[in-house]
Amino acid sequence: MFMTHIKELPSSITYFTSLRELILPETHIKELPLSIGDLTSLVELNVSKTPIRELPSSIGDLTSLDELDVSETLIEELPSSIGDLTFLKRLNLSKTPIRELPSSITNVPHGVYGGLQHLEYLNLSWCPKLVTFPSAESLPLMLPSNSLLFPQLQRLYFQGCQLSVVSDFLTNLACASTLWILNLSGSSFDSLPACISKFSRLESLDLSGCKRLRDISELPPNIRGINLDDCVSLERFSKLSNILEQKDTPGHLRSMNLSNCNRLMDNLGMDVVSKMAKALLNQLVRAGFELIPNNILV
């Protein structure tokens, strides 16, 4: 049904109880019927780039759902039943006017496990109205707040993040041993939270376009690539000198983009810049390390 002129789903669709995929991007559908919950075999639901404004509460009945894509829709709020999708692995909410995520994503009825325990991919990029996240107060009192949020998350895309307390958000994530891609590009924070170092498997960190970012004090231990392109306010990167001299180099670091980091380069001075070139031409080149300094690609 990709790019068709369909405006609503026929009532007969509920008879297709064995339907596994419902792909409706760029259609004219404005709403999903309440009876959508009868499609209990549905594995993938894609309504991206449609004028849909809300999801029916029966969405929580889709207990087999593996992937939900509502990107570039008009959805401002998710039903609390979203927390019942305990086997959901991929959730794309990018470019929506969503204001907050329901607390049900962190607990299901009987409050034993987090609602989205199997989530591996979460895209919240370019959601300008999303400024809050379920707080610790909304979590079950018998469980620590940092044990619930997305324990199997592998990829988190949070471009254009407007969260007022990024550190709290990252601290409450329970995916320290599973997250390997984190994209915070274009976000508004001024320092990289120290808790970033807890993500022991993180390989790719994208901070490009974080124009207010001024300081980086910590890096995850197994980072392979970090993108700081156009971090125009960045002034301090406390471990950079040691990285260049390989005194404190994360074991797998291979790529670092410092394009247009003019303030950082000014603060580092020519001595560190020369170390950068020397490191690139010597040990780091032999190790396959790629370094993109300010406006220079070697």
Automatic annotation (TrEMBL):
Keyword Metal-binding: no
Family annotation (Gene3D superfamilies): Ribonuclease Inhibitor
Swiss-Prot/TrEMBL keywords: Leucine-rich repeat, Plant defense, Repeat
Highest taxon listed in the record's lineage: Eukaryota
Domain Disease resistance R13L4/SHOC-2-like LRR: 4-70
InterPro entries in alphabetical order: Leu-rich_rpt_typical-subtyp, LRR_dom_sf, LRR_R13L4/SHOC2-like, RPS4B/Roq1-like_LRR
A Pfam family annotated for this UniProt entry: LRR_14
Record-linked PANTHER family: LEUCINE-RICH REPEAT-CONTAINING PROTEIN 57, RX N-TERMINAL DOMAIN-CONTAINING PROTEIN
Protein name: Putative leucine-rich repeat domain, L domain-containing protein
